[in-house]
């Protein structure tokens, strides 16, 4: 009942503040549209598997600038491909070479394809003209940069806006004295946190549905899996952003200080979420990735949208996201102790 | 003091220390039902800190606080208190009615009763005509009155009001005090902080606070008579000055 009152109040505040509501929905749509228009290739060392390459041909291939692994049969190579240990493999069937690519990252596809073409150049020169047969594990030749970035951007926008707006509204609750007033009522500390989660949760579902639907149906972003999973992942990510935003707001004294968390907390996550190839990040920094919620959300979103996977592949990511939320939630309930001991 | 009345608030040797600063020193007070009790003192004297402890928002560093004979902080007791802080604590994006509805639901007021109470409290603060207005369009004094209306909503047995009539014009201030006297008749106890001397005269009993210490307690008449003063202001100066002399002697 008391939580419901809090939920109704938060939703009413959203409806009144049309500008903020517009920002949360239309700003991501605008940026996604711009990205879609602008993006549609780096120096990346492809990892290529070689399956049963006949000795005479192998001697003629130009095999530099790639990490090579030999496989005795295709099954082993395919397993390595699924685990993303290699980007693609070359095999010879009936004397004809063919290549199978992992395919979810267009920039990797391109780099691998370029390398394969270079590798086969000596053969072409020797007059052994062969048509190269290309297959994709995920994605297709048509897949653009935008399709690969899209899921990460979708997650990023939801995280960013929910973090900022939840943080600012809780900060206001503190600076205007309404938090004190709430705590001088019989409202329990966990009820405040629960009310915020439900109120923002309802709004975030709406936001995520609109943005995801726009990206998929209007901008034709690649969508291999189920829409429902996309919403589930974004909801859990929003929960993380919400609880983290509320928690960090207790370390800010005004709106400007809340915004100062953006370059420190939000932006760095983008670098570790797979928007940029994680393997090109220096090793002494790459350990940060697994500590950021966006890393898991982006991975899960990509599994659904690009790779067309289902529940069994995304649930570990969702579990981690839930753990993040629970951690921040507990910290919140403790942080509120500062204002009332019981 | 008032033997036939129920004790509502009792503080026993309450002190509060923030870091190295002693904000409150050894405050012992008893407040009874049906009285309007005033905390009088300059800003920074520790009035708000004391009031926050009574509401359960702060814990004393030393000593104990009892409200309705139960040790604070206690959630069931918090429910019986109506608290109005120094800041207005309103949701500006919402209308007055929405603010009232929200706080009424926090105290579990049921629909019908809630509407009736909203009407009643808005009449007391004379804001009935502005019920559906957004709070952001309210003037400073109107916000103060709405804040007071919210504190009155759940008919608390104890009202703790931190500077309730700041920024409210004299005519309206008088009518708000009349409303306090009406509620008092029904047995509601009031704790009011103020730094305005003429407002202090309206209280049944006063506690003068200066530098975190209780310098005098009594009815306005007693305080004036004991110090042979004509006004509360003179009495305050006498107790404050006397305190100062004691302080220099002990050194």
Structure notes:
The complex is a heterodimer of chains A (342) and B (251). With 342 residues, chain A is an alpha/beta fold. Helix content of chain A is 64%, strand content 8%. In chain A, α9 packs parallel to α14. Chain B has 251 residues and is of the alpha/beta class. In chain B, strands 6-7-8-3-9-10 form a 6-stranded mixed sheet, sandwiched between helices. A 4-stranded antiparallel sheet of chain B has the order 2-1-4-5, covered by helices on one side. In chain B, β7, α6 and β8 form a beta-alpha-beta unit.
How are the SSEs ordered, and which strands pair?
The complex is a heterodimer of chains A (342) and B (251).
Chain A: H1 2-16, H2 18-38, E1 47-51, H3 55-60, E2 67-71, H4 74-82, E3 88-93, E4 96-101, H5 106-125, E5 133-136, H6 145-175, H7 178-183, H8 189-218, H9 227-249, H10 255-259, H11 261-272, H12 283-286, H13 293-305, H14 311-335
Parallel strand pairs in A: 1-2, 1-3, 4-5
Antiparallel strand pairs in A: 3-4
Chain B: E1 7-18, E2 21-32, E3 36-40, H1 47-55, E4 62-67, E5 70-71, H2 75-78, E6 81-84, H3 96-106, H4 111-124, H5 140-152, E7 158-162, H6 170-185, E8 189-194, H7 197-200, E9 205-210, E10 213-218, H8 220-226, H9 232-250
SSE run of chain B: EEEHEEHEHHHEHEHEEHH
Q: Quick one: how many beta strands of chain B? A: 10
Low-confidence stretches of chain A: none
Helix share, percent of chain A: 55-70%
H-E string of chain A: HHEHEHEEHEHHHHHHHHH
Global morphology of chain B:
globular
Strand content of chain A: 5-15%
Please tell me how large the radius of gyration of chain A is.
24 Å
Taking all residues together, what is the mean pLDDT of chain A? Answer: 85
Cα(first) to Cα(last) distance of chain A is 20 Å
Mean pLDDT of chain B equals 88
What separation lies between the terminal Cα atoms of chain B? 34 Å
User: What is the topology, as strand order, of the major beta sheet of chain A?
Assistant: 2-1-3-4-5
Number of helices of chain B: 9
Rg of chain B, please? 19 Å
What structural category arises from helix and sheet content of chain A?
A: alpha/beta
Shape of chain A: elongated
């Amino acid at each position: 009942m008391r939580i419901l009152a809090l939920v109704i109040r938060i939703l009413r505040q959203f409806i009144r503040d049309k500008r903020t509501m517009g920002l949360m929905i239309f700003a991501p749509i605008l940026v996604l549209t711009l990205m879609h228009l602008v993006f549609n290739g780096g120096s990346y060392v492809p990892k290529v598997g070689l399956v049963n390459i006949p000795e005479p041909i192998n001697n003629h291939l130009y095999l530099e600038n790639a990490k090579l692994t030999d496989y005795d049969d295709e099954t082993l190579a395919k397993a390595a491909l699924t685990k993303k240990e290699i980007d693609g493999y070359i095999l010879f069937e009936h004397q004809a070479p063919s290549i199978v690519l992992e395919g979810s990252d267009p920039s990797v596809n391109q780099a691998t394809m370029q390398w394969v073409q270079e590798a086969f150049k000596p053969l072409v020169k020797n007059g052994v003209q062969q048509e190269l047969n290309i297959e994709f594990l995920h994605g297709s030749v048509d897949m653009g940069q935008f399709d690969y970035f899209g899921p990460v951007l979708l997650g990023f926008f939801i995280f960013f806006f929910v973090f900022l707006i939840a943080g600012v509204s809780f900060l206001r609750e503190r600076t205007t004295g309404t938090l004190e007033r709430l705590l001088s009522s019989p409202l329990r500390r966990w009820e405040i946190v629960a009310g915020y989660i439900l109120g923002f949760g309802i709004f975030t579902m709406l936001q995520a549905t609109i943005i995801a639907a726009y990206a998929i149906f209007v901008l034709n972003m690649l969508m291999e899996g189920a829409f429902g999973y996309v919403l589930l992942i974004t909801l859990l990510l929003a929960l993380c952003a919400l609880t983290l935003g509320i928690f960090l707001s207790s370390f800010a004294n005004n709106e400007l200080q809340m915004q100062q968390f953006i370059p420190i907390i939000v932006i760095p996550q983008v670098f570790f979420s797979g928007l940029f190839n994680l393997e090109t990040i220096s090793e002494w920094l790459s350990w940060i990735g697994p500590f950021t919620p966006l890393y898991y959300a982006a991975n899960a979103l990509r599994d659904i949208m690009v790779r067309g996977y289902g529940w069994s592949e995304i649930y570990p990511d969702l579990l981690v996201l839930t753990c993040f939320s629970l951690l921040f939630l507990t910290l919140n309930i403790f942080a509120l102790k500062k204002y009332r001991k019981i | 003091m008032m033997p036939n009345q129920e004790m509502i608030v009792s503080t026993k040797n309450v002190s509060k220390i923030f870091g190295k600063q002693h904000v409150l020193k050894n405050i012992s007070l008893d407040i009874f039902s049906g009285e309007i009790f005033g905390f009088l003192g300059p800003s920074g004297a520790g009035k708000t800190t004391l009031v926050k402890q009574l509401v359960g928002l702060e814990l004393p560093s030393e000593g104990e606080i009892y409200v309705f004979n139960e040790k604070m902080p206690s959630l069931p007791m918090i429910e019986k208190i109506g608290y109005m802080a120094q800041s207005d604590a309103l949701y500006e994006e919402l209308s007055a009615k929405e603010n009232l509805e929200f706080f009424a639901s926090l105290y579990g007021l049921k629909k019908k009763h809630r509407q009736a109470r909203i009407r009643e409290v808005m009449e007391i603060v004379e804001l009935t005509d502005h019920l559906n207005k957004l709070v952001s369009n309210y003037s400073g004094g109107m916000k103060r009155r709405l804040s007071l209306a919210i504190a009155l909503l759940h008919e608390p047995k104890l009202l703790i009001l931190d500077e309730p009539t700041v920024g409210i014009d004299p005519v309206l201030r008088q009518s708000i005090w009349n409303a306090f006297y009406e509620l008092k008749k029904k047995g509601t106890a009031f704790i009011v902080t103020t730094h305005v001397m003429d407002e202090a005269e309206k209280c049944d009993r006063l506690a003068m606070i200066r530098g975190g210490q209780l310098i005098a307690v009594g009815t306005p008449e007693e305080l004036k008579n004991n110090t042979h003063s004509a006004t509360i202001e003179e009495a305050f100066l006498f107790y404050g000055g006397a305190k100062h002399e004691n302080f220099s002697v002990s050194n």
